Amino acid sequence: MIDLDHQGDVAVLTLNHGKANALDIELCRALGEVLEKVERSSARALVVTGRGNIFCAGVDLLRALAEGPDYFRSFLPALREALEAIFFFRKPLVAAINGHAAAGGCILACAADRRLMARDSGRIGVTELRVGVPFPVVALEIMRFAVAPHRFEPIVFGAATFPPAAALDLGLIDEVVDPAALMERAVAVARELGAIGEDAFAVTKRQSRQPVRERLRTDGPLYDPAVDAVWFAPETSARIRDYVSRTFKKI
Q: Interhelix angle for 71-87 vs 25-40, to 10°?
């Protein structure tokens, strides 16, 4: 499900979960556990990547359809916890985006301190509104933090995905790298950030992300119940089924 290796003082977390590294309850919980383990370790920084040609395809919609709306009652809390764990990870974190990063996969990448994407590897973007589901507060705040204010609403409401060059122009990623050099470059960037004094980096990162933590405290109770209500609604399952049938051509 998750492979954890080390290249010197840099930990490398590889999503290795099914064909698409899709987010489900088990993967979300495993992410939190591994991130906590790396935080306690001697690693100075972390690189997150995916196995194969997909970084992360977002929420496992096929499983959601198979198990019904009640699945989301367990999944959404696990998703929120995983996104908070990666966004507030105290050490430097670099996303090595090896392929498609859609919806929750894009949000996962945008939670990192630096985002590198392999050239001609796939597309990245938040497609939630195209699917027909709203963003949990933490997911929307990660996107608000990651991209420039004038890009935020076009990216979110447009619900499109972008090739690496366009994603770079939009600020969704920080660098486009040749596929063969992606991991080497990501580890180098992580090592550079990890060379900063650990406490100095952690305090500065905490300060820079504190406004998001405050909005989670105030806006979470205000908006997340409404978000959940849409995810739980029977008509949302119909929209998801329609999206899957058009996009995946599987059901």
A: 20
201 and 192 Cβ atoms separated by less than 8 Å: no
The domain 2-180 is classified under which CATH number: 3.40.50.300, 3.90.226.10, 3.40.630.30, 3.20.20.110? Answer: 3.90.226.10
pTM metric for this prediction = 0.95
DSSP code of 135?
Answer: P
Dihedral pair phi/psi, residue 89, rounded to 5°: -55, 125
Please give the backbone phi and psi of residue 11, each rounded to the nearest 5 degrees, phi first.
Answer: -85, 145
Q: CA of 113: how far to CAs of 80, 93, 156, in Å?
A: 18, 5, 20
User: CA–CA separation, 146 vs 183, rounded Å?
Assistant: 22
Structure tokens at 155: 């990216």
Pairwise CA distance, residues 175 & 93, whole Å: 15
What b-and-e string marks burial along 45-76, b requiring 16 or more CB atoms within 10 Å of the CB? bbbbbbbeebbbbbbbbbebbeeebebbeebb
> For 107-166, how does the pLDDT look when each residue is reduced to its tens digit (9 = 90+)?
999 999 999 999 999 999 999 999 999 999 999 999 999 999 999 999 999 999 999 999
CA distances from 63 to 22, 67, 73, 148, 231 (A): 10, 6, 13, 34, 14
